[in-house]
Amino acid sequence: MPKNIAGRKHEMQVLSDALNSHRSELIAVYGRRRIGKTYLIREYFNKKIVFSFTGLSTGKRPEQIKNFILKLNEVTNKFTGQKQPADWLEAFSLLKAFLKDIKETKKKKVIFIDEFPWVDSHKSGFLAAFENFWNDYCTTRRDLVVVVCGSAASYMIKRIINNSKGLSKRITQTIKLKPFNLKETKAFFKYKGILMEEYEILKIYMALGGVAEYLEHVKAGDSAVTSIERLCFKPSAYLENEYNEVFRSLFNEGSYHQKIMNTLAGNRKKGISRDEILAKLNISSGGRFSDSLEELIQSGFVLKYDAYKNNSKSTLYRVFDEFCLFYLQFMLPNKGAKWDQIFQKQEYKTWCGYAYETICLKHSEEIKQALRCDQIESKNYSWHNSDAQVDLVIDRADDIVNLCEIKFYSDEFSIDAGYLQKLRKKESQFRLTTGTKKSIYTIIISTWGLNPNQYSQAIVTKSLTMKCLFE
Fold first, then answer.
1. What is the pLDDT of residues 81-105, one digit of tens each?
2. Euclidean distance between CA atoms 357 and 319, whole angstroms
3. Which of 15, 228, 246, 266 has its CA 20 to 30 A from that of 147?
4. Domain spanning 9-176: which CATH class is it, in words?
5. Contact yes or no for 179/206 (Cβ under 8 A)
6. CA 368 to CA 351: how far, in whole Å?
7. CATH among 3.30.420.10, 1.10.10.10, 3.40.50.300, 1.10.630.10 for 243-329
8. Would the CA dihedral through 177, 379, 158, 160 be positive or negative?
9. CB 307 within 8 A of CB 381
């Protein structure tokens, strides 16, 4: 495995399997902007790439074809001086001619088409020509790996992965590249020579998330405060316009994406239902809204999750992207302000609790490993009624329910008599409203752990720290 790629073990195994398979492989890679898709493919395959082409973000068909031919002329002199192809079928016929000159061997040759959705504009004929290229030529060889990549998750899923025409069931591997988790973020910093305490990494992660390109700009010697100040709040900060650029690059104008995000960001506590989103936007349900919401989910910006209330199940939605939530909560309303003043306010401390809760939901598998129940079938959901709320419920097949209380705190968390009664009420209300017969165990997931005393010993079965999220 390449040493210059931090994390991504599963993804690199997929790419390795493609290189070692007995057939040609067609791999679809998608993930949000700046997540590291292009870097992963180029660094992993490196010199095995015999042809690479990146679509133009705004180019029409003639410009895209010209770009394609220019890239082809970088790797062969075969077509120098030749008239530009009239359409994509002709363009791919030249790529076929180039590949035919490369002798078929056991070693795989890689063709990489990046930003695929940008090329396949309306009536461009690009997708149909590519389908023909794969079906008519690539499948006749055993030594090709064709990688198609794009940031527009909705396009990649609908038009490539779930294609019902020429590419139906032709995709051999799919990689949805997600943001780094905390363990991968720590490894990424270590790779960069940045030795940082986990608490500082956590605070940076709560603001920037695990987006590789954002984390690339964190410097050795930075604290969470100085990193966030420099990247988000200083004049002409690197991430100053990132939020709008993300949505402009991924989604069509006139869609509901940003309106949905704004609505969800203003209702952080428990998440809200689809009907509540529609009511707050004062619109009726329809295809445009449904598509926008689904695309936000597929792109990793919104979490769709189950909540149980009084024995009934409902689906809730919440912002799942750390940077987007941080932007809407702090960057947008505080332009020109200084972060070293904002972070000391109660608003930030309250927000940290919510952000830490979201991160714990993302790292539920690590939490289960720490509880030693990761091999036991379980369901995750949140729960609340009018009297109590539980951040994360792990409902296990071994007749145990873990009620996880998530607390972001700057020191060890202490339970007093009043908080003990609050936790007992959660247990009793959960049993009463769900009717469960399972054993109920309360778990505390805090940053620095639990200060053991008579109250914690009376109710807490297990205390976990933020360290388990890095395992």
1. 889 999 999 999 999 999 999 999 9
2. 12
3. 246
4. alpha beta
5. no
6. 25
7. 1.10.10.10
8. positive
9. yes
* pLDDT score of 269 more than 80: no
Quote the tokens at residue 354: 């919510």
Residue whose tokens read 């989604």: 251
Q: Is residue 261 within 8 Å of 345, Cβ to Cβ? A: no
CA dihedral over 325, 189, 246, 110, signed as positive or negative: negative
| Length of the chain measured in residues | 471
- Which one-letter amino acid corresponds to residue 46? N
The distance in angstroms from the start CA to the end CA of the chain is: 21
Residue 29 near residue 41, CB atoms below 8 Å? yes
Amino acid at 409: Y
For the segment 146-200, what is each residue's pLDDT rounded down to a tens digit?
Answer: 999 999 888 899 999 999 999 999 999 999 999 999 999 999 999 999 999 999 9
Task: Report CA 417 to chain centroid distance, whole Å.
Answer: 40
Matching fold, domains 9-176 and 363-470:
no
Q: What is the mean pLDDT of residues 235-248?
A: 92
Rama region for 97: left / alpha / beta (φ>0; ψ in -120 to 50; rest): alpha
Q: Domain-by-domain residue ranges, the chain?
A: 9-176, 182-240+332-355, 243-329, 363-470
What pTM value is reported for the model?
0.90
The tokens describing 453, both together, are: 């005393």
Largest CA-CA distance found in the chain, in angstroms, rounded:
84
pLDDT of residue 310: 64
**Residue type present at position 101:** D
Nearest-CA neighbor of 369 among 471, 267, 244?
Answer: 471
Comparing CA positions, the residue from 134, 109, 120, 112 lying closest to residue 53 is 112
The verdict on domain 363-470 having CATH code 3.40.1350.10 is: yes
